[in-house]
């Protein structure tokens, strides 16, 4: 199996969906959460370990600032591509704090996770193609 081709914009996925969806009035906040947590975890065979806040789940949580505005600049993002297809777009809504398994891994734009401290997770079922 080969990796699927795409664009270097994982970092902007949720901010773009929030800005153009929730902030623009196209989808509800509840739908945004559903699309980016529980449904994503189900698609990738990781639910209910991921995608839910409940006893026994991994305590992965993103605290979101719905008023934070930022202009996308791919040269300043984590991707080594050096650009973004959204360069110059101003988006509203950005994560301020991210917890992975209850540990802070991003705080106010600074990554605090250490390289190599992730975990490989066994998926259940077959993910959607």
Summarize the structure.
This protein is α+β, with helices and mostly antiparallel strands. Helix content is 19%, strand content 22%. The chain has a single domain (10-111), classed as Urease, subunit C, domain 1.
Notable traits:
129 residues; alpha+beta; Urease, subunit C, domain 1; 4-stranded antiparallel β-sheet; 3 helices; globular
What does this molecule look like?
This protein is of the alpha+beta class. It has a single domain (10-111), classed as Urease, subunit C, domain 1 (Roll). Helices cover 19% and strands 22% of the residues. The chain has a 4-stranded antiparallel β-sheet, with helices on one face. A hairpin with a 2-residue loop joins strand 2 (90-100) and strand 3 (103-107). The protein starts with 12 loop residues before the first helix and ends in an 18-residue tail after the last strand. The model has no long low-confidence stretch (mean pLDDT 89).
Tell me the structural class. alpha+beta
Q: How many β strands by DSSP? A: 4
Summed up, the domain count is 1
Task: Output the CATH class name.
Answer: Mainly Beta
Strand order of the largest sheet: 1-2-3-4
Question: Could you give the order of the helices and strands?
Answer: HHHEEEE
End-to-end C-alpha gap: 12 Å
CATH superfamily: Urease, subunit C, domain 1
Largest sheet: 4 strands, antiparallel
- Average pLDDT confidence is 89
In CATH, the architecture is: Roll
CATH topology: Urease, subunit C, domain 1
Q: Number of helical runs?
A: 3
Overall outline: globular
What proportion strand? 15-25%
Radius of gyration: 15 Å
Helix percentage: 10-25%
- Pick out the low-confidence regions: none
């Amino acid at each position: 199996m080969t990796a699927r081709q795409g664009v270097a914009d994982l970092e902007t996925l949720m901010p773009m969906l929030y800005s153009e969806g929730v902030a623009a009035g196209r989808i509800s906040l509840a739908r945004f959460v559903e699309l980016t947590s529980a449904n994503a975890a189900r698609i990738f065979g990781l639910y209910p370990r991921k995608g839910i806040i409940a006893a026994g789940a991994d305590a992965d949580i993103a605290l979101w600032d719905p008023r934070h505005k930022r202009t996308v600049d791919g040269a300043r993002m984590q991707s080594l591509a050096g650009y973004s297809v959204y360069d110059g777009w101003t988006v509203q809504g950005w994560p301020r704090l991210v917890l992975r398994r209850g540990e802070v891994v991003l705080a106010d734009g600074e990554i605090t996770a250490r390289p190599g401290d992730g975990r490989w997770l066994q998926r259940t079922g077959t993910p959607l193609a």
